[in-house]
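Structure first, sequence second, as always.
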């Protein structure tokens, strides 16, 4: 079964960018689901959209769209979701590979190419994941801020005409900000 990586790190280290870049490298469609503290299990399945005359209609969520199309879903800031929402994803993250909508009364299987990735902030404003979800989100990859020499290479690559003095100033500023 495909891995479901968990990218963990401080806010702003590039977890979401890395997840998108990995999906792009695999030449698969990448979909994002922004997790919040009030994400309900049904929010993971359908998304309400305002239609004509102000009426609501429901469309497949980014997660379900990725499942159907065989793409990659990135659940951004996944540890902001409650255990109840994670529990609804347990069958998707093991050998069963499906989600269920109790409201609609349907079971949605994941296409063979479907991949799942979660990003998680390493800070105090998040929920602890239940152990049965920890075991399904593997491997855990810790992303940290770049060291000064790595930051210098990144800046020089993206700003090839910047004077060395400016690059060094920015590297110093960023290193202080990281700490």
């Amino acid at each position: 079964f495909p891995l479901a990586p968990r990218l963990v790190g401080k806010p702003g280290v590039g977890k979401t960018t890395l997840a998108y870049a990995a999906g792009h490298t695999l030449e698969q469609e990448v979909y994002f689901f922004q997790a919040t503290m009030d994400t309900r299990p049904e929010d993971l399945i359908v998304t309400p959209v305002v239609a004509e005359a102000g009426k609501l209609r429901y469309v497949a969520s980014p997660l379900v769209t990725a499942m159907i199309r065989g793409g990659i879903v990135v659940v951004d800031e996944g540890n902001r979701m409650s255990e109840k929402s994670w529990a609804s994803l347990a069958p998707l993250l093991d050998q069963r590979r499906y989600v269920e909508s109790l409201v609609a009364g349907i079971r949605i299987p994941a296409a063979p190419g479907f991949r799942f990735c979660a990003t998680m902030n390493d800070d105090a404003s998040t929920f602890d994941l239940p152990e049965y979800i920890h075991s399904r989100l593997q491997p855990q990859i810790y992303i940290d801020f770049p060291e000064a020499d790595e930051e210098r290479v990144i800046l020089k690559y993206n700003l090839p005409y910047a004077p060395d003095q400016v690059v060094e100033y920015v590297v110093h500023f960023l290193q202080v900000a990281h700490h």
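Margin note: Residues 60 and 147 are 41 Å apart (CA to CA).
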